[in-house]
Write a structure and sequence with these properties.
The chain has 232 residues and is mainly beta. Helices cover 3% and strands 65% of the residues. It has one domain.
Length: 232
């Protein structure tokens, strides 16, 4: 698949890039991959793996007083961008257990020699849910997300290396308890309690952005999340 990606300017890569002076980044390119799943002889157990490769090119404008008082155009070209995922699901009666591991490598060059940055994102989770009755299911999961980054080039100082994933800035470890209520066949509501260690702020943020946390981040965050969804 080849094409252009349109990201929201209020979240994700495009939003966090603005904190470093990157304005309206546009990127796209060739993507290809595959997914393999196996329903094993053990009843209720499914395992699988997937792989995606990308050749990403981008362009935009860059404005940072530490580099230049002017707004400068830039272009980027990837050296290596790929994702590996391994996952499994086990269902037995009212019990369901899921797990997944994911690694994402993003290695790009900005304007040939201006900056080369390599980002290594790794994450995994284990979750379990038990259906109490027709309407109610209780569950919990634990997830670990870590990110490391290394940069070289004339403006590498703007993007400090992240090598110690034990630091709060380089990880998010999340313990979660959940309750789901199925209101009918199509509509459900869910409540989640999150107890997070770290904030993982970097090129690919995990929900924490410098622009909306002007006083900085705390090493621990608790959150109550309410969700509802409709399926048809």
């Amino acid at each position: 698949m080849r094409g252009h990606r349109s990201d929201s300017t209020y979240s994700g890569y495009a939003y966090v890039s603005a904190a470093y002076g990157v304005i309206k980044p546009r990127y796209g390119g060739l993507q290809y991959g595959g997914d393999l799943r196996w329903s094993t002889p053990l009843r209720g157990l499914l395992i699988g793996a997937s792989r995606r490769n990308e050749h990403t090119t981008g362009k935009g404008t860059f404005r940072n007083p530490a580099v230049s008082p002017q707004t400068l155009p830039y272009s980027s070209d990837s050296k290596a961008v790929w994702t590996n995922q391994f996952y499994g699901e086990y269902v037995r009666g009212r019990l369901q257990i899921d797990s997944e591991y994911r690694r994402y490598l993003y290695d790009i060059i900005i304007d040939t020699t201006l900056l080369q940055t390599a980002v290594d994102v790794r994450g995994w989770y284990v979750s379990g849910a038990y259906r109490i009755n027709k309407r109610l299911a209780l569950g919990s999961y634990y997830s670990r997300y870590s990110i490391s980054r290394a940069s070289t080039g004339p403006i590498a100082a703007l993007f400090p290396d992240q090598s110690d994933t034990s630091l709060p800035a380089n990880h998010v470890y999340d313990k979660v308890v959940t309750a789901r209520v199925d209101l009918n066949r199509f509509w459900n509501a869910k409540v989640e309690g999150h107890f997070m260690d770290g904030y993982g702020v970097s090129t690919f943020p995990n929900g924490f952005y410098p622009q909306v946390n002007l006083m900085g981040f705390k090493p621990h965050t608790n959150a109550l999340v309410l969700k509802t969804s409709v399926n048809f």
